Amino acid sequence: MIKVVAALIEKDDKILIAKRSTGDEYVFGKWEFPGGKVEPNESELTAIEREILEEFELKVKAKEFITNNVCIYPTKTVDLRLYRCDYINGEFKLHDHSEYKWVKKEEIMNYDLAPADIPLANYIRTQNN
């Protein structure tokens, strides 16, 4: 099982999603909560902060675990773990994505999400915080 962390970054009552421009056929061109794989001997909090810096050149502070989803793809099983993160600083530069958007949580299911992200998005959409 591959452990992957994802960031829930909020601004002005909207959440950040990004469209993949890399990856296999199951995620390429799909929208997702940004993040990436946890490296050996790396904490999940450190991993999410490193991945957001690598993918977007943004500095974030990982705050708390929210929820996860285990997704079985034909070639791998992914445990996608969502963390609430605070934006610290930086200007967007895209490396693994073709675009990003700030969307209202009520509208997130209108996007073609990666399979592992769908249950996470549904969970966020139904929360009142």
Can you walk me through this structure?
The protein is α+β, with helices and mostly antiparallel strands and 129 residues long. Helices cover 17% and strands 43% of the residues. The chain contains 2 helices and 7 strands. Strands 1, 2, 3, 4, 5, 6 and 7 form a 7-stranded mixed β-sheet that branches. It is globular. The termini are far apart. The model has no long low-confidence stretch (mean pLDDT 94).
How do you describe this structure in short?
With 129 residues, the protein is an alpha+beta fold.
What are the salient characteristics of this protein?
7 strands, 43% strand, alpha+beta, 129 residues
Question: Largest sheet, described in full?
Answer: 7 strands, mixed
Number of helices: 2
N to C succession of SSEs = EEEEHEEEH
Q: Assembly type of the shown chains?
A: single chain
Radius of gyration: 13 Å
What is the end-to-end distance? 31 Å
Structural class comes to alpha+beta
How much beta, percentage-wise? 35-45%
Quantity of strands, as a count = 7
Question: Unreliable stretches, pLDDT < 50, 5 or more residues?
Answer: none
Give the mean pLDDT.
94
Shape: globular
Helix content: 10-25%
SSE map:
Layout lengths: L1 E10 L2 E7 L10 E2 L2 E3 L6 H13 L2 E14 L4 E13 L7 E7 L13 H9 L4
